[in-house]
Amino acid sequence: MNNHVSIEDVPLNGFHQLLSIRSGGGWVLDGYVLSIIGVAMVQLSTALDMTSFWQGMVAASALIGIFFGGFLGGLLTGSLGRRKLYFVGPAIFVICSVAQYWADSGAALFFFRFLIGIGVGFEYPVAGSLLVEFMPRKYRGPRLAMLTILWFAGAAAAYVVGNALLDSGRPDAWRLVLASPAVIGVVLLLIRIGTPESPRWLLSKGRAAEAERIIKKVYGPTFSLKNMPEQPTEKKVSLLDLLHSGYGKRMLFVAVFWSCSVIPVFAVYAFAPTVLQALNLKGEWASLGSVIITMLFVVGCIIATRLINVIGRRSMLIHSFLWSGLALLGLGMFSNGSEVLVLMLFGAYAVFIGGAQVLQLVYPNELFPTEIRSAAVGLGASLSRVGAAIGTWLVPISLQSIGVGHTMFAAAGVTLVGLLVALAIAPETRALSLQEAASLR
What are the protein's UniProt keywords (predicted)? Predict the structure, then answer.
């Protein structure tokens, strides 16, 4: 009955919706666990008598962990499967978040948050690969893009819950703040129970019978391996294989565009009040501006999610870098402008960069075949976080040494690099099956 219907063209069913929640919950938790340290930092710095060195190390620890976690998670997901690694990230979040409650030094916090970063690094290749390998092509882009929105939702929740706990007046409130992600982690572990392995990964390991059973369970008894547009064969792939198998150019594209899209965002998002004050927004203007910018990042991602299947991946990336870069250029040129002008330019950047933000998860998952997909996503996540860590670390130094105007020009320069790379080699994968999108044709 369904001999000619590809699983890439089926309508969404209950399994797809549940898988979206299972994978999306990981991004909510990622946004929460990475942002919660900023809420607790002032109180914990005083309580633990932390030096500025350890404050900086604790703030950067998770980003360092993501670098290693992305590499490791990508390689292990390719060899051990998606399902087994699906529980590693949430388990690390639960254990280390609870352990932070008893941390008695900056070094201890650095260690636990470094491990949390490794867990976040695992989520990128594991949850993303599992979601994309089940999702029909029509919904693949929007569902992957949705994960970015959920990250910001988790970050917003961290500020709401964290500040509520701090306002309780308990002397150990910061400890409760740092332990709070464990609650979300336990819920995520529970809802991920029962998730099946990816049939595409099983076929890549020669386990056709298992793949067939899962296809029938997910799509119905009339579906079989014949309904899969791609039937990968067993193949061992190393990191060097990835770079020399003809996908090196795509890996370069992913690493560069991902880095160029996160470096200014992490810097702006982490230091929004400081940057706004340097742009002469004081008092209520600075507080209001920080809230508005955070909201507009979410708005930009939502708009991009709605448009991703309308204007296509390549066009969205080019326009995102172009218009967000012009907004940063305007901030550099008018760094002494009025409060309204500065907020308008900052807001324009937050909205327009949404396209590049949501494509961070779409492109890497679409451009590589099953055998190397998780390794490529993990590598992209790792390399982009190196840039993010450096960019975040440089912002206060740059503001002091060359001023806010030139700092904005530097951010615009990073965005320009992303635009040039997008113009030169960004492919279009809209409306393609996963096999077609990953093919080197």
Answer: Membrane, Transmembrane, Transmembrane helix, Transport
